[in-house]
Amino acid sequence: MKKIIGLVIAVITTFFIVGCGAKKMKPYEDTEVKYLDGGWVSVWADEFNGDKLDQTKWSYETGGDGWGNNELQYYTYDNTEVSDGTLKIFGRKEQKNNNQYTSSRIVTSNKFNFKYGRVVASAKLPVGKGTWPAIWMMPQESTYGHWPKSGEIDIMEYVGYEGNKVHASIHTEVYNHKNNTHQTGSLKIDNLTDDFHKYELIWEPGFISISVDDTNIKTFRYNPILDQAYDSNQAFPFDQDFFLILNLAIGGDWGGLQGVDDKIFPAIFEVDYIRVYQKDYNYLDKSKPETPYNVQESRLKKNSIIWVAPYDDIGVEYYNVYVDGEFYKKANLPQITLKKLDKGKKYNIKIEAVDFTGKVSRMSEGFEHTFK
User: Which pTM was predicted?
Assistant: First the structure.
């Protein structure tokens, strides 16, 4: 399939645009920085132009035993093929270690992981009941604890019995499918199994937006008012490095709800390309952030302080929190839970915002908080 390397997409969000790091971004496989609209720079990609999977970029995860979702396949090294400019992941009806089916699952873990940016993938989905392909992301380190505490981002999930619908979801300690609170969106798209469609993620501090063919499926935002009963990482732990996953599951709690049609095999999940972009903030960012405001105590969580994120021309990376004029801690989102202070003592809390180039806002007005 003909490749479109010079992808140009205008990205407009209603919030600030962010990415990772203020350093001059090194472009992927290029001799000089070439900016797409919005200042995006290509930092990683696989165009699947060779004749085998590039294992400098991907690793196989193998095995069976359901993968936590009662899936029926055994993941092997043998169910991927790179040919004619695409990656094919095959699902096959064959016995392997007490599993009725085989497939493949590939990951960039420990080879490429990133925090904030944009992912664009082009894929054609498999036909038939029982297929469950996905383009998704998991944290490189379980900083906040094991699943779902450190988060999961599902850019695209599809279950074959629905035929014309794709899904985008996030999973966190507070919002996850095990307790029926996960946040998800769905979109009906024609010809999912006949044509390639573009799946896109925009990931910023406190903000994740996922689209198909430039149509939004779902936008997820951290809101310190709505989520003030929790620590920010319990509701939105997406401030750590994540890696990419491509897989084709067979059956399982969701994919197998209407059984598996054995006449569909071999099923093929085909990926034309997957690309990652990030912002060059030194190129883009001209102004320091405005001052954080409306600093207040959470009504629902003891010793939790929340505030309104200030405007910045490009984006705020984190906040410095000061207690009685002394630096206390960095916060990646506009909320912090104070700990290890003297019970009953009143403290003056101030906040400053720091953007991705290190420019610092003015200090917020002080907020008096009595530690409980």
Answer: 0.89
Active site residue 297: no
Burial of 136 by CB count in 10 Å (0-12 exposed, 13-18 middle, 19+ buried)?
A: buried
The one catalytic residue in 71, 157, 204, 297 is: 157
Of the listed 47, 152, 200, 352, which one is catalytic?
152
Q: Is 94 noted as a catalytic residue in this protein?
A: no
CATH of domain 287-370: 2.60.40.10
> Contact, 214 vs 198, CB < 8 A?
yes
What pLDDT, in 10s, does the model give residues 207-228? 999 999 999 999 999 999 999 9
Task: Evaluate whether 40-281 and 287-370 have a shared fold.
Answer: no
CB 97, CB 64: distance < 8 Å: yes
Residues with Cβ within 8 Å of residue 370, at least 6 apart in sequence: 344, 345, 346, 347
Residue ranges of domains in the chain: 40-281, 287-370
Would the pLDDT of 13 be above 70? no
Q: Which architecture characterizes domain 40-281 according to CATH?
A: Sandwich (2.60)
Q: Residue 163 corresponds to which tokens in the numbers above?
A: 């035929």
Question: Is the CB of residue 59 less than 8 Å from the CB of residue 111?
Answer: yes
